[in-house]
Amino acid sequence: MLAAHDRAVRNGLAPALTARAAPAGRFEVLVERREDDIARRLGGVRNAAATAFQNEGWLRAWYATVGRAIGTPLLVSVLDRRSGELAAMLPLVLRTGGRLRIVEFTDDGVSDANAPILGPAAPRDAADALAMWEAMGAALAGADVLRFTKMPREIEGRVNPLTLLPAARRSSLSTNLVTIEGSWDDYLATLKGALRKQLRKSWRLFAEHEGAVFRRVDDPDEAVRVLATLERQQGARLRAQGEPYRLDEPTFSAFYRAVTAEGVADGSVILTALMQGETVVAALLGLARGDAYVMVRISVDAAQWANCSPGRLVIVNTMQSLHAEGYRVFDFSVGDYPYKRRLGARGETLFDLTAALTPRGLPLLAYDRAKHAVRRYPAVRALARKIMSKRPAEGGDHD
């Protein structure tokens, strides 16, 4: 039986095979499915480690908008039977894909970090992480697949137990962090001299315009107006580049409006902008937690203001302002763009985890494993590209 269990762990199947034994183990699992019950339980969390994307306001807004549109809300709470303390809380959603019932984090493209909220009893080693995983698998036995993506290795200095599991794999995505331990001038000194010169010139060109200022938007009504401009500018830029863009669809717009209006009032959302009078030159939406700030959405009026690099200006001015308030960690989020490296960001690996709970989930598990193999091994990746390059062109632009 032990050998079978080990094979199951390697294949991402352990939760289904050990479901009968899980209730007698160390962890107890509670699953909430009603939005009001989820909100009440989230509101009761204290002294827990989480990323900014597991903030109570962010999650409530997500479940009320995006979550309703794509599936059934699930909040999984894992408790330590011995102490009664919280081990982990996972904000999830159950959605269907064809015949598959898939459990995933509250994301659908709006979250850059998916992770459990860690309580005092959170697992700290692989053995306890596996015990928690088995208990979760038993509680979610009605699903076919658990599919977790973009998970950080650490959550506010504590290990993410899901990344300790044998089935966890390095994601193709990474987040990008700048940590400033010293003064702002110390940070600037780490940048190339040419970049520092460009920053000074860009600010001078911007400030030459009458009424040109950098601002933090604290009023909820004004924040919603600035957000609407950000949405239009971002959509126009990405579509002009041929990139897909969904964030101005009604469900996503409603989500960001709710998050922004509530968040700028309580400080969990930070909206900054370069303004000339009432005109938004550039805007940056970010999330705050502790001494960390993560950038979420950015927009620029490139046609009118390209000569002063407004995108870079709003980022650097936001960092400087928040550093003066005590922020020390600046997360440029996912996406490996050159400007992030030029501003000193270092890549931090994220992790994915797919587990099949039923035989129907095996093809999706195999698909995710194949994608990982293609990314991990250069020879396989080169072969895949060669094969794809020989495929006949397909009509339409549905992808």
Summarize the structure.
The protein has 399 residues and is of the alpha+beta class.
Give structural notes.
The protein is α+β, with helices and mostly antiparallel strands and 399 residues long. The protein folds into 2 domains: 2-173 and 349-389; 181-327, 3-Layer(aba) Sandwich (Aminopeptidase), CATH 3.40.630. It has 14 helices and 15 strands. It has helices spanning 2-11, 14-17, 35-43, 56-70, 126-139, 184-190, 193-207, 220-240, 250-266, 302-305, 310-324, 338-342, 362-376, 378-389, and strands at residues 27-32, 72-80, 86-97, 100-105, 117-118, 145-152, 154-155, 158-159, 169-179, 212-217, 269-276, 279-289, 292-300, 329-331, 346-356. Strand 12 (279-289) and strand 13 form a beta hairpin. The protein is globular, with a radius of gyration of 23 Å. The two termini are 44 Å apart. The model is unreliable at 1-22 and 387-399 (pLDDT under 50).
Shape: globular
Strand-pairing-aware structural class: alpha+beta
Helix count, DSSP H or I runs of 4 or more residues: 14
Q: Could you estimate the helical fraction of the residues in percent?
A: 40-55%
Helix and strand run: HHEHHEEEEHEEEEHHEHHEEEHHEHEHH
Q: Got a strand count?
A: 15
Q: Averaging pLDDT over every residue, what do you get?
A: 89
Spans of at least 5 consecutive residues whose pLDDT stays below 50 are 1-22, 387-399
Major sheet size, sense and barrel closure: 13 strands, mixed
Beta-strand residue fraction: 25-35%
Which oligomeric state applies?
single chain
Distance between the termini: 44 Å
The radius of gyration is 23 Å
Our count of domains comes out at: 2
